[in-house]
Here is the input.
Amino acid sequence: MSVPLGYYLILGGVLFAIGLCGALTRKNAIAVLMSIEIMFNAAILNFVVFWYYLHNGALTGQMFALFAIAVAAAESAVGLALVISVYRHYKSVDVNEMRSLKG
Amino acid sequence: MSVAYAPIVRALGSETALVLVALAVLTLDFIIGRKREVAKRRELVGAVALFGLALSAVPLVGQVGMTNVLLPGETLVVNPLVIIFKFVLIVLTAVTVLISIDHDIGTHVGEYFAMLLFGAIGMLLLVGTEEFLTIFVALELTSISLYVLTAFHKNSLRSQEAALKYFLFGAIATAFLLFGLSYIYGLTGATNLRDIGAALAKKGTDPLLGVGLLCVLVGLGFKVAMVPFHLWAPDAYEGAPTPVTAFIATGSKVASFFVLVKVLMVAFAGAVGSAYWGAFESGWAMVLGLTATASMVLGNCAAIVQRNVKRLLAYSSIAHAGYILVGLVAASSTGATAVLFYVIVYAITNLGAFGVVAALASRAGGDDLEHFNGMAKRAPFLSLLMLVFVLSLAGIPPLGGFFGKFYLFAAAVECDAEMFGLLWLVALGIVMSAVSLYYYLVLMKHMYVLPAKDETRIATPGHLKMALAFCAAGVVLLGVFPEPILALLKALVVRL
Here is the structure.
């Protein structure tokens, strides 16, 4: 066990920050979706690492990670479906062009 | 580890019934629906969904005696408070179904009602758990169903755009929630609220805990639409089919506030902090004090300039999230009681208001303020009901909204008996309630004073009128006799 826990936590934090930056700045809806996936994966990495280093007596962390993976998959499936149905109307997936709702 | 399955089956009776009915609704529409007219299909499938909801309330009666935790780790909890809220959620869903039967929801009738029921199942599970993994999964079940429901007007660009915005904001909030939960799990090794509370009490504060708590607040704050995580709400409320708007604004908020109260009061009781004037201390009370301020100010001020009724009600609901947070900032059992009472009143009122909008807007040609001109002559009964709902939202006695707000503010004042540290928040709340009266009365002016272009009467079906009258009766009753339910909630919250 040569890599200390802190390194993984920093990796998780950096991944989450990268994902958040992408989600907030990208214009393409698909790219936003991908950035959100990176944020999810940062959290999942944290769960697995915390489980492995600190709480490996019970399977809680692993279970949480598995459920999170399943939920993230379901969520991106719905997300992609929504992107497609928006594309049918706008012929574009640029989130900045979606301005029919304002006020 | 041995688990007794019989009580678990009993405790999950409502959810099981709803899953079966949702699948039955899908199958039914698939087999016999396709050849009929859409309006007939809505009636048929809606009736089955209603029957299912009635059926799912039956197991709740059998659970009244059960007060124990049913699965190790509080994954599944049954107590009187949970039963009350499950019942409220079932009633809210049933009224939503009644509103939907009358509303144009496109040709995918079976899918619509099934999604509605899946969303309701998520809310029931959310209320009936004290463990973060289940909270997370239930929250996602609710959210994903609502994303799909928001996009149900397939030919409407606004509906699709609203759904995508709702989804993108929602997914980011979920990522925050999960990230926060990972830190909390790492610090405590537990995922159930009580163990987390106990572990944190031993450990004291930790910077990682601060990050985790803040991330969880972002995730849940998005669900209750508090500023600054409210950006999705006006768009989603406006673009979604109106019955779905009603469901997002009521059912999902009731469940989310219930969970928020439980999470903060049980798991993070040790990280309260303080929002007392001049004695700010970092913790969730301070964060919520600031977001409550922002929600009340922004929600009410932005509502003034709205021309679309659904958007106006969306900003009003952001403002109401602010009022409710004031009760939470008090961080006392009186505060929690007031929050839970107000959430129920708010949900019934808003469901009624959106129900009236759903019924009238589709027949008047749109949901802008102008479309409601002279509505008092065109649909006198529904206009009267709208008057009741709007006055309750504005907080006029003797309606439920007044007493709800009164208890919220009273709880905030009395939590610091010597210094009245939260008086600033209460004063702001009262001022903002006065501001809110303006835009509620503008809506009333359009309905009661301004003349309509087209004076033809608007006919609405009887079941819809009955459902909305039921909501109005609830609002009046909760205003005139708040004591029984308040006393009940108070007695139950102490054991939270």
Notes: Chain B has a mean pLDDT of 91. The CA atoms of residues 39 and 104 of chain B lie 8 Å apart. The longest helix of chain B spans residues 157-188.
